[in-house]
């Protein structure tokens, strides 16, 4: 009997896994309105209605621990991949998960996100996530040497990553080396982490130890996630 129950449980688990797997495969089936309706219904019945105290607390205000920069790629879903709960992470997504250096004239949208997350929300960690087979990074690595562009916004944006491209090309001089794309995915994350330190409120809090910068890389081909920090020796400025 025990073996029979165990076998039945295994079959049931397998059936549930199959249903979940099938649901993921068929995520794009149906009209846009139906997909949205079904998605919200699932969230409301499995989370919102089940944990009213949690969402009542969120209604009072947010206090996220993380600011996350991730790529806009539809295969990269930080909240799902890292199981962030509502209220846990302040999200920013763009092409190739790039963070430009501090500039009051350009990229004010990114600057506003960083300033608000750090000074108003008081996040403890800024996490920049790159990912496998990033189209933006491939476009960056394939940019012509003369800097010519063929679109309105894309190339201008990904040129933020040119220092990462230069570093990779210096270390991997073979232009046919496919490893360049994978290496640049990580170097672009490191560049963004360095660029974050050009924001005075970020540098100040990192120096005080109240803010950490982390890099990550999500490999959705093999189901892997790497996380790293940066070695910094930043001291507070002398105040007289």
TrEMBL record:
GO terms (BP aspect): carbon utilization
Cofactor: binding details: Binds 1 zinc ion per subunit.
CDD domains the record matches: beta_CA_cladeB
GO molecular function terms noted in the UniProt entry: carbonate dehydratase activity; zinc ion binding
Keywords: Lyase, Metal-binding, Zinc
EC number(s) per entry: 4.2.1.1
Protein residues bound to Zn(2+): 71, 73, 131, 134
Gene3D superfamilies given in the database record: Carbonic anhydrase
Pfam families reported in the protein's UniProt record: Pro_CA
Catalytic activity reported: hydrogencarbonate + H(+) = CO2 + H2O
Domain of life assignment: Eukaryota
Cofactor: Zn(2+)
Coiled coil: none
Function, as annotated: Reversible hydration of carbon dioxide.
Family under the similarity heading: Belongs to the beta-class carbonic anhydrase family.
Protein name: Carbonic anhydrase
Taxonomic path: Eukaryota, Viridiplantae, Streptophyta, Embryophyta, Tracheophyta
């Amino acid at each position: 009997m025990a073996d029979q129950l165990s076998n039945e449980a295994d079959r049931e688990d397998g059936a549930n896994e199959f249903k979940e797997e099938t649901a993921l495969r068929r995520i794009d089936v149906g009209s846009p309105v139906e997909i949205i309706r079904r998605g919200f219904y699932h969230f409301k019945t499995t989370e919102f209605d089940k944990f009213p105290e949690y969402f009542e607390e969120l209604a009072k205000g947010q206090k996220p621990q993380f600011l996350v920069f991730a790529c806009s790629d539809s295969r990269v879903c930080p909240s799902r991949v890292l199981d962030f709960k509502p209220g846990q992470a302040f999200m920013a997504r763009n092409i190739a998960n790039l963070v430009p250096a501090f500039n009051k004239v350009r990229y004010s949208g990114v600057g506003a996100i960083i300033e608000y997350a750090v000074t108003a929300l008081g996040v403890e960690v800024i996490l920049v996530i790159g990912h496998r087979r990033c189209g933006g990074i491939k476009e960056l690595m394939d940019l012509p040497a003369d800097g010519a562009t063929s679109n309105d916004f894309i190339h201008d944006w990904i040129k933020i990553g040119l220092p990462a491209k230069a570093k990779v090309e210096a270390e991997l001089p073979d232009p046919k080396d496919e490893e360049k794309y994978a290496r640049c995915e990580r170097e672009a994350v490191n560049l963004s982490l360095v660029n974050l330190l050009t924001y005075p409120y970020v540098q100040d809090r990192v120096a005080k130890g109240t803010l950490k910068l982390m890099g990550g890389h999500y490999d959705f081909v093999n189901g892997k996630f790497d996380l790293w920090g940066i070695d910094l020796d930043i001291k507070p400025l002398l105040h007289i």
